[in-house]
User: Fold this.
Amino acid sequence: MVVGELTEDAVDGLFHALADPTRRDILRRCAADEPSVSRLARAYPMSFAAVQKHVAVLERAGLVTKESRGREQLVRTDVGAVGRARLALDDLESTWRGRVDRMSALLAAGTEPERKTSTIRGTG
Amino acid sequence: MSVTSVDADYDNLTITLIADFDASIERVWDLWSDPRKLERWWGPPTHPATFETYDLTAGGEATYYMTGPEGPMRGAWRINAVVPPTSLEFINAYADPDGTPVAHMPIFTVSVLLTERDGGTRMEMRSRFESREDMERMVDLGTVDGLQQAVGQIDGLLV
Assistant:
């Protein structure tokens, strides 16, 4: 569904960006935090330039954005508007699935026959 | 088992959930209209809800708080429409400790429709964010978990 919103080139870029385990790991770190490129570089057994190259691939695919702060460049994930909508609705969905489960449990727990009068409510 | 379908409409920021319960409409409605029953399912076990005021009439309000490890969170409903025992629509907003709605938390509208089906009750629940900004606020509240989960899912597809 997310893919439907993107051009074919953008999808290729996205999959290329995600096909590399280091880049996926960078993405994960940036989801939890907003590390600088140099801090990211220290986390991997490779050169600063190599890590910078990985970040550039993620940036071209629209998965991260870079922001200059002082002498540092901070990297943050940018999953895009569609991705954010998906996350928000996924969150709502799991909330409501939990509620329905609890409602079912309450209904199952109280299966004793009800007195007819108990279901008559006021103006509410 | 109870949830029959879930449909997420990303363009209209709406989620529609259909659930079937093996109980009469009156009993399902009771879970909504009786605040003591409502508070047994509205919040997750980690964040139980307590309703302090509950005026289930058109234009009425309900206020509640949810307790959790990070402290209490307040919520308020404004009832748009109610037709017992079959339908209800309300706006949920989050509130400050006085119960006054706060602007930086997401606002969403919930509508509920109960119909009889095969001797049981079908509940159709629609939850809609007021605006894209509200939706963004919801994401901000759960950003880290949500993103990590999403990234994890992408990972699972590609590994």
